[in-house]
Amino acid sequence: MNAVTTNRLVMLVAFVVCALLYVTRAKVVPGRAQTVFESALLFCRESIAEQILGRTMGRKYEKHIMSIFFLVLFMNLAGIIPGLNLAGTALPGMPLLLAVFSWLLFIWAGIREQGGLKFLKSQLFPPNVPWVLYILLTPIEFVSTFIVRPFTLFVRLLANMVSGHFLLTLTLVGTNFFVFSALGAMKGFGLLTLAAALAFTLFEMLVAFLQAYIFAILTAVYINLSVHAH
C-alpha cells in the first residue's frame, strides 16, 4: 500500500469516525466539537444546497452535497497533517473519482426530476433557437455538458491541491537545507523559509476549505441546471 492510499484511508476513517461520534454522542447543549460540526452541516445546507437549489430541492439533495463537501475537505486537509503531508486530492485518482460522482449525480438528478428524454432535451436543445442551428449547437452542448463539465471539476481541484503541495514542500526543503547544510550566515535564511512554511500551512488550511466549498457549490449548480428545464 503506497503513501497516498494510506493517506486517503486514514482521512476516510477520520471522516467516518467524526460522523459516527456526532450521530451517537450529539447533545442538546452542544460542546465545542459538536458546535463546529453542526456549523459545517448548517453551512452546507443553507449556504450551498438551499441557496442554489431552493429550500425544497435543497433539502432533497443536501445529503449528497454535504458528503461531497466533507469528503473533499478531509482529503484536502491530509496535506497539512504531519506524517501524512500529502492531500488525498493531490494525485489524479481521487479528484477524478469525485468529479465522476458529481457528474453522475447531475445526470441522475436530471432524469429523476424531469425524466430521461426531457432531461436530454433541456441539456442539448436550447429553447427559442431556429431548428437548423441545432446541427451546430447540440454537439457543442453535448461536449460542454457531458465532457468539459466533469473535466473542469477534476482539473480545478487537482491543480489547486498540487500547487499548494509544491509550495509547502519547497519551503520545508529550503528550511532543511539552510538549517542543516548551509554555512555561516546562510543559516539565517532558514528562519525565513520556516516562516514561509508556516504561512503556507495556514494558507493551505484556507485552500482546503475553499476548494471543498467550490467543489460542493459547483455540484449544486450542476444539479440545479439538471432538475429544471430551460
TrEMBL record:
Localization, per the record, is: Cell membrane; Membrane
UniProt-recorded Gene Ontology molecular function terms: proton-transporting ATP synthase activity, rotational mechanism
So what family is this one in? Answer: Belongs to the ATPase A chain family.
GO CC entries: plasma membrane; proton-transporting ATP synthase complex
Q: Which HAMAP family match?
A: ATP_synth_a_bact
* Protein name according to UniProt: ATP synthase subunit a
What is the membrane topology listed in the Swiss-Prot or TrEMBL record? Multi-pass membrane protein
Keywords on this record?
Answer: ATP synthesis, Cell membrane, CF(0), Hydrogen ion transport, Ion transport, Membrane, Transmembrane, Transmembrane helix, Transport
Q: Name one Pfam family in it.
A: ATP-synt_A
